[in-house]
């Protein structure tokens, strides 16, 4: 028997959802730790455990992570008035390097990267003793973890520009090399995705039977496309997104409203989705993301005792006005929860409010006025009637979509309108597939600007997609709204001061504003 006794890894236990419900067949997990001295590396049946641990780690993101990654676009305002003032200042492009949230997101992402690298090492230990079949399985598991690791590096580079690429759980040598430029990070991601694609299942995530919702080669294609888009290599974007389209495996979930709720979980549209559950039980173990920051502070839920939120994430008046001017119905009603004061404010600004706009959601939850915001995000809202009986947390058990097919179609269309050769369907068809679901009329001869407008309408409030599009294209005038003035100096967050202080300057090989998160500390946990 071969065992290792020198490190601890985070490990999760796979729990299959047994309840017959709309959220069955999830990759459900609960946290644990396992001393690797207890692992028999000759027992290939245990090789999946580090992979499940990796999925647990990425799903255990803090509540502040999606908020910080997404708040700076013209689609979202911070809300949260009276609390977290530096979060509000971030939304206004006034950055304080001492703000705890910057340090926390930086730390959390690098901590997860270290855990990904540790999981890879564990799987490699199993592969030393594996037969041909299990060796190939190990290669697939490592490939899945590398996709997760790529997404983490991707987020860091889009927010801080020049960052450390860490591929080891003993990264001293990598730290000594200093930071990589954002372009180098994106090229690293693209190249690594090219390597892992053949090792991953040729299927949708929801077609996997071993880990339903797990990563497949099309998730890797999506990550490659996202990285190439940041590099503005639009032919490579068209090729990667075209591979997803040409697979014929993906389609848009027919009900845009339910896509972001329990009926839409692990749909044929999903390429990467963080999974949560209370296992269909009224009490006991539950694995949730904390959605309260996204929710309204004051509501009358259709289901008694459902808790309200914190009011920290508000669709902007600019976005809502844009949607009204476009005669959007399905996507506006889905994306925004309206308060009476918010509706009155829009009327005072001169908008003619469509008849369907109400402070009562299609699921009969009543959104009341509250101090911190006039609107809340409908994409992060779970109707109270979809909560498991006995569970009252805002959004309890709701999954979190990260990458979906609609984004792939629109990335493809943008690339083609920018001169890339079509590798799949025409750009018009890609855009019109998205518009059709939204009950919007078809376009012909679609332009790049029309594609960008479509991305605004379709993908608002999702992971900062709008913001990163605008800085990629230097569309600073779009981000200068509601009294804000955006310049090139505002594109990236400052390095957290705690990280500048954590690493000796000479280890960075860059200026005094550069630092590593305290990634080394994770090795001693």
Keywords:
mainly alpha, 10 strands, disordered C terminus, membrane, TPR-like_helical_dom_sf, two-stranded antiparallel ribbon, about 525 residues, 19 helices, globular, disordered N terminus
Number of helices: 19
The unreliable regions are 1-36, 504-525
Describe the strand arrangement of the main beta sheet, using strand numbers. 1-2
SSE arrangement, N to C: EEHHEHHHHHHHHEEEHHEHEEEHHHHHH
Main beta-sheet strand count, sense and barrel state: 2 strands, antiparallel
Helical content band: 40-55%
The structure class reads mainly alpha
Quaternary structure: single chain
Number of strands: 10
Mean pLDDT: 89
Estimate what percentage of residues fall within beta strands.
5-15%
* Cα distance spanning the termini: 27 Å
Shape: globular
């Amino acid at each position: 028997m071969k065992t290792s006794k020198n490190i601890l890894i985070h490990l999760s236990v796979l729990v299959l959802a047994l309840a017959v419900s709309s959220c069955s067949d999830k990759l459900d997990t609960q946290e644990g730790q396992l001393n690797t001295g207890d692992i028999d590396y000759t027992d290939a049946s245990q090789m999946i455990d580090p992979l499940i641990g990796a999925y647990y780690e990425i799903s255990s993101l803090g509540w502040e992570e999606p908020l910080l990654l997404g708040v700076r676009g013209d689609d979202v305002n911070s809300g949260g008035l009276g609390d977290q003032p530096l979060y509000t200042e971030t939304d206004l492009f006034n950055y304080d390097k001492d703000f705890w949230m910057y340090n926390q997101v930086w730390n959390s992402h690098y901590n997860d990267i270290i855990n990904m690298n540790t999981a890879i090492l564990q799987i490699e230990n199993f592969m030393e003793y594996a037969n041909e079949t299990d060796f190939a399985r190990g290669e697939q598991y490592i490939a899945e973890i590398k996709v997760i690791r790529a997404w983490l590096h991707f987020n860091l580079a889009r927010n801080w520009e020049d960052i450390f690429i860490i591929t080891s759980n003993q990264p001293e040598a990598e730290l000594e090399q200093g930071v990589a430029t954002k372009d180098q990070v994106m090229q690293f991601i693209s190249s690594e995705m090219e390597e892992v694609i053949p090792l991953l299942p040729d299927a949708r995530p929801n077609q996997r039977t071993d880990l339903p919702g797990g990563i497949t080669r099309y998730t890797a294609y999506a990550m490659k496309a996202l990285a190439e888009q940041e590099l503005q290599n639009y032919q490579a974007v068209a090729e990667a997104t075209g591979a997803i389209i040409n697979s014929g495996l993906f389609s848009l979930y027919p009900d845009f409203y339910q896509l972001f709720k329990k009926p839409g979980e692990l749909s044929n549209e999903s390429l990467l989705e963080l999974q949560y559950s209370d296992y269909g039980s009224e009490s006991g173990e539950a694995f949730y993301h904390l959605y309260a920051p996204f929710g309204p502070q004051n509501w009358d839920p259709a289901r008694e005792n459902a808790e309200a939120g914190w009011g920290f994430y508000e669709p902007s008046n600019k976005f809502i006005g844009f949607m009204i001017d476009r005669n959007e119905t399905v996507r506006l009603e889905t994306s925004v929860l309206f308060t009476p004061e918010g509706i009155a404010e829009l009327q005072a600004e001169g908008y003619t409010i469509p008849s369907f706009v109400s402070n009562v959601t299609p699921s009969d939850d009543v959104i009341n006025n509250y101090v911190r915001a006039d609107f809340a995000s409908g994409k992060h809202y779970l109707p109270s009637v979809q909560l498991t009986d006995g569970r009252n947390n805002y959004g309890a058990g709701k999954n979190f979509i990260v990458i979906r097919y609609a984004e792939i179609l629109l990335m493809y269309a943008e690339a083609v309108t920018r001169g890339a050769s079509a590798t799949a369907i025409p750009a018009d068809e890609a855009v019109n597939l998205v518009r059709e679901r939204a009950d919007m009329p078809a376009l012909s001869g679609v332009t790049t600007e029309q594609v960008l407008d479509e991305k605004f309408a379709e993908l608002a409030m999702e992971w900062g997609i709008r913001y990163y599009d605008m800085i990629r294209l230097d569309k600073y005038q779009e981000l200068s709204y509601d009294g804000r003035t955006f310049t090139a100096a505002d594109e990236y967050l400052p390095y957290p001061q705690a990280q500048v202080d954590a690493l000796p300057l000479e280890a960075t090989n860059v200026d005094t504003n550069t630092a590593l998160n305290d990634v080394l500390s994770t090795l001693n946990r």
